[in-house]
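quick one before i forget lol
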Amino acid sequence: MVDDGVGPLEGVLVADFSRVLAGPYATMLLADLGADVVKVEGPQGDDTRSWTPPVRGEVSTYYLGVNRGKRSIALDLRDPDDAAAARELARRADVLIENFRPGGLAKYGLDHASVRAANPRVVYASISGFGSGPGAHVPGYDLMVQAMSGLMSLTGEPDGPPYRAGISVFDVMAGNHAVIGILAALRHREATGEGQHVEVNLLSSALTGLVNHSSAYVAGGVVPYRMGNAHPSVFPYEPLPTADDDLIVAAANDGQFRKLCEVLGIPETADDPRFARNADRTARREELRPILVAALAAKGAVEWFELLVEAGVPSGPIQTIDGGFAMAERFGLDPVVEVGEGERAVPTTRHPIRFSATPARYPLPPPELDEHGAELRAWLAGPDRPLGEEKP
């Protein structure tokens, strides 16, 4: 099929009242898919504008990483005129997304009930830390949720302290859940003409995101604890030392284990009844690990990686982020795209979803604070027409 230059969300206007990570990440993904996203910021701008280092020029790379494809307007909601402009934007929007503390927008007439009264078709998405019920008063930060959900109890060495994940994993997960909810609500609106309130909270995203560990507790009554890099239900599925660096080996079924043993030159190990099934290998991991480690000592991690992958055994060297991007380039994934032109051009990570007919587009670089304020104020003060008509 031929790309017609129109994204799948072309014509969808998103009023983005979110800040920091979960909401901006969600709206960036929507912008990549063709939505017109208006980023509403306070007079001081999104918090992440000041989260440095690192920087590109004088701009926070954190901010740059989640704000491409948007227009920025700075509005002080305590100012009556700015609040009125914000309400007009909400009235025109197909989607409004916000991550204020639950109830925090009511005094400005921007809560769901108020916006819906003026715009019954709106899909109003709220992201919070702990929901809009008894947990509404608790501030929602990813690190808190990593601790409170149990993730940190699962991360680290068995006899060491708990650790946070290296990224704000539940902010990103909640952002993705918000996108899923928004798209489903847009489909419902297409069928019925009705908007709805979509609520996402970090703790619920965390608990569903803990998948097998959550199921161990909910379905099995087992409280899992950290095992370092080991997997509670599969072996080998962890880093193992080689002649130089550690190598991830993930032989998760009997066939893969047999291939692993063949490549390592120890085919008899796959026939050993002690290691016949995954349950056996997991139960006897301390017997099996030394056998694998002794064989892996013959070559380095990269050399083993090439041999194992060629044989169909999941494995991978442990790299820094630059190595991750290099690997994506090697596999033809083109992980970096450039948005903007000239001095405003910014390299950014490619949208993760590929479409055969409507690929993601990157028309606008991350905006400067209030960069589009004048034109957006004029548009909001004028006749009700699609913002997309002025799309570059």
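fyi DSSP finds 15 helices and 13 strands in the chain.
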